[in-house]
């Protein structure tokens, strides 16, 4: 809980800067955070930009979609899929990546990190 | 160790040895083979392909290395001239004496040359020829250089093959046949008539009912053939192909029993009258019959291997002589009792002069069993009918409906493979049964590639491939393996089907396709595939808002993502031709951005290590210098590799660089199921390695030779020769059609090589579609391609001119910083990504969950 207490909302960009179905990366307190706009359900997700398989910051550049109904992003390097909701890797149970809360105020996208 | 000597290293002799190798029996026996020819076994069935581009090497079925590797002793150019059966020794022309425990005679046959009075001089030796060996082919080529007119005596299967060879050599070609029709053994009068029309349309003159009385010196030509009916024919070259005779001379001198008209008599175990001597192939006479096809020879070889190994139960039980072949592009097939000689047999025939198709079925008196059939012009029914015949199955419909498959009754006649017994032979070349194919599927085979690799089915003549696919799919279904071509969980369609839907319904966006024909949100499989299809047919800018979410990162950022998340920059250098000034620009840009620089196999320059925010600046400079994108990131045309060609090379016969540049610029925008590479060589030395490319072009004196569907990479494949002597326009027209047909029908991420291997009917079918326009789609394919060519845009040029698009090219949307996780070391004067050990962990990357 102490961790949560230190989290504050940071505005990272405007929704109008994004394209539906794609991601961008924001730098929040030194952390690289991937932000996705899933167009069909019109939801915004935020999770770590770092792919633990490729060991590179680039998940924001992955393709998004669903795997058996679970919304996911596929890593551009070796195609492992991560749940947009939970950060759980859908191809390897033992791996998951951090996720972040998102809220939208007007056109502003804010991240808790 | 038991010693086996094989006399003759033709297809059957080699098959015998190969069976020993395949069955791992060579440890127990020592095998020695002798050939009177200068080469080891080659594919005599494919002889005519020697004249359409294949070389003697292409026809080889084995090699000295292969025999060496397996300890097979071989002697070429050394004919066995004597067998001493008491001492069990063979003696060769060179004086070699070798002892044996078992002797296998695979001496084959020789061409029958009727005893016609003829000139007997050196010129006659060079210009009155037969058609049997590679040496014969070489002699034909030589004679062809000084001949305008050629005559083939004999209108049978081999004769027509030989006629094609003469056509390919560019001669005015005639076929002279004694019987009233062509292919008299296999085909009846009705079929013969259609066959004749089709062959004559190809420019071969056919003369039937001609009995050659004598060959004399000609007036304007080298020879004149005088016929018994008083007519005559002038010609420069004469080729006898009037049937074969068993090569039984050695057996005769050895005292083995022969048939009254020749042939070495064998029993069901393929033993001759001397139990230690076997005879197999065309030299053997079984129950009074000689088998002039390769498949029965292979069966005999198998039986002999088994018998020598002590398996007495295996027997040669005769062979079905049904055949299907393509003669000069005409499909001809014959099954069983084609002439309705069986008592009470009934014939039904259809002669379609409009389509030039002839079909005949012969049934028993009750009309419920197939006894024989003839097909000319369209032999698609062969596989199903052969099974009906071989397995003595009740006819699925009344016989007349077998002939008209387009009617409803006929549709029912397409027999389900489920009704075949397991013993049904599917591949006659390698004697593969339905049961064996099903077993292979049960053992895990799921593709035709697997089936070919494990059973050998469809790797001979390929005539059974369609049927083998049906058997495989049926068995997969029986096993509950869903034979699903669905691209992914979001669309119940294959890529080819999606391409059809997009094209026919003129669908322009992924959203529309998903809502009308799919479900869910899409995924990393279907999105790029549909993106590629949309790009193929509508050729919009790939970064258009509608399409951007479909693109893989490589396509979004128009560069290939490397292992560290940076991108490569690969400008197009069409044909590998570049001016010094442009080369200097590349060097300057690479130096300014410290890009790792490497020359590629596709004759261009790769610049590595560009970060997102650097890409637009780099490309602006390159575009200003006249470069455009090289699509190295796309499933699209990559490079057209070329040799320097006739402009500089003293051997070149055409301008290969010019052609390469023309082709690269024509197809550079095409999005495809996978990457596509071309090669153009300026002469047959083939320095551009065109035969390892998707599209290969090799210059000859007469124009361009087109090769299709080759591949390097993980599973190399030589491209197939598709057409020869093409002019520039026809060449491009064929490439337009081949590529567009590929793009329409291939699976996702399927290279042209695999696509062709999975295409039913293979390269012959592709030729029918592209050259003969069998599907009547060529005009449309060309229009599709025309649209792609017309609407080409350099994606980098469009991007650097669009402020909104440029916004994407930064690591962070809210900061102007680069990615601080990138680390490099210098090596050989350039930078490269640091290895894990070399990295200094400066930032905390993974948080505790």
- Which CATH architecture of chain A? 3-layer Sandwich
Shape of chain A: globular
Largest sheet of chain B: 5 strands, parallel
Instruction: Please tell me the overall pLDDT of chain A.
Output: 89
* CATH architectural designation of the domain at 2-110 and 246-308 in chain B: 3-Layer(bba) Sandwich
Stated plainly, the CATH topology of the domain at 2-110 and 246-308 in chain B is called: FAD/NAD(P)-binding domain
Distance between the termini of chain B: 70 Å
Number of continuous helical runs of chain B: 29
How many H/I helical runs of chain A? 1
The CATH fourth-level homologous superfamily of the domain at 2-110 and 246-308 in chain B:
FAD/NAD(P)-binding domain
What are the low-pLDDT stretches of chain B, counting only 5+ consecutive residues below 50?
406-414, 842-849
**Number of DSSP-assigned strands of chain A:** 11
* Class inferred from helices and paired strands of chain A: mainly beta
Short description:
Chain A has 113 residues and is mainly beta. Helix content of chain A is 4%, strand content 49%.
In words, what does this structure look like?
- The complex is a heterodimer of chains A (113) and B (849).
- Chain A has one helix at residues 2-6; strands at residues 9-14, 23-28, 31-38, 43-48, 50-51, 56-57, 63-67, 70-74, 81-83, 99-105, 108-112.
- Chain A has 113 residues and is mainly beta.
- Chain A has a single domain, classed as Rieske [2Fe-2S] iron-sulphur domain (Rieske Iron-sulfur Protein).
- In chain A, the strands form 3 sheets. Chain A has a 6-stranded antiparallel sheet with strand order 1-11-10-4-3-2, with no helix packed on it.
- The two termini of chain A are 13 Å apart.
- The relative contact order of chain A is 0.23.
- Chain B is built from 29 helices and 39 strands.
- In chain B, helix 23 (656-667) links the parallel strand 33 and strand 34.
- Among the domains of chain B are: 2-110 and 246-308, 3-Layer(bba) Sandwich (FAD/NAD(P)-binding domain); 122-242, FAD/NAD(P)-binding domain; 495-551, no CATH class; 637-790, Sulfite Reductase Hemoprotein, domain 1.
- Chains A and B meet through strand 2, strand 3, strand 6, strand 7 and strand 8 of A and helix 18 and helix 20 of B.
